[in-house]
Structure formats: structure tokens, C-alpha cells
Amino acid sequence: MMQVLFYYMAAVTVVSSVLTVTLKQPVYNVLALLTMFFHVAGLYVLLNAEFLAVVQIIVYAGAILVLYLFVLMLLNLRSDARHMHRQWPFAVLILGSVAAMLVGAFAGGGFGGEIGQYSTAYIDSLGGDTQAIGLTLYTDYLLPFEVASLVLLVAMVGAIVLTKKGLVDDQVED
User: Fold this and answer.
1) Is the pTM of the predicted complex or chain greater than 0.70?
2) How is 62-96 classified by DSSP, letter by letter?
3) Checking CA distances to 126, which of 68, 101, 112, 136 falls within 20 to 30 Å?
4) Are 23 and 29 a contacting pair, CB within 8 Å?
């Protein structure tokens, strides 16, 4: 039963991800993205990572999706929407390359291997998945965590600069 549920969640996640990129209407893109977020949270539940599932729903399906909807409401995408699909042959080439790499990795046993130190018993000995995530994030992966925070900070400053560009140009002309 768990395998059938996993295959369902994985298939819907892949299909909704492809629909997010290929649909022409931005609102339908957001709805496909919402479907993908909820099914990824379902995959986390199947992996016994309930904390990550809740964070997935709160952060991505809540905050990030609302941000996307605000951007869609603020921008007028009707004139630009038909020009976005001119890169379709390039997207098919990229998709084919990624699919070939995944098939090669699965065929070569690239995803198999030994189970690492983070088994279910080890996570339970740490006090649960939330504590295990915190300990791992702030000990083994501290540098990537800090780099990700800097990238998000730069993206936030860049978004502010891009939205305030008209105000800066108006002040320079005065």
C-alpha cells in the first residue's frame, strides 16, 4: 500500500511540475505549483519526516505561493505571455538530457548504496526528526546553510532594487 501511495505522490509531483513550467496561463501555473507542493509534503510524510511536511506546507504552499500570486496580480502578463513559449525546443532538449541522465543513474545503480548514519533508530535517539534536522543543519551543513542565507539576502535586495528602480530614476532626474 505504501508503494502505491508513493508512486501516486511521485507521479503527481512530476506531472504538476511539468505543468507548472508548460502551462500558458499564470494562474494555472500557480495552481499546478500548489498541487506539487502538497504532494511533496505527502512524500515527506511517507518518509516519516512530518516536520518537513508541515514546513513544506507552511512555507512553500503558504508564504511563497501567496508571494507568487501577489506578483501575478501586480504584473500585467497578458502581452508577454505568448512570447514566453518560443523557447520550447530548448526546453525539450534540456528535459531530454535530464531524463537521459536520470535513466542512466537508475540503470547504473547511482541511487543505491549503503544507508548512512541517519537511520530511523539514530534519529529517534536524538530526540526526533526536528532535533536531528537542527543538529545536522547547524553542525555538518553550517557552511551551505549560511551560503543559502546569503543567496536569499542578495535575491531579496535585488528584488527591492528592481521594484524601486522607477523611484530611483525619478530622484536622479530631479
Assistant:
1) no
2) IIIHHHHHHHHHHS--TTTGGGGGGGHHHHHHHHH
3) 112
4) yes
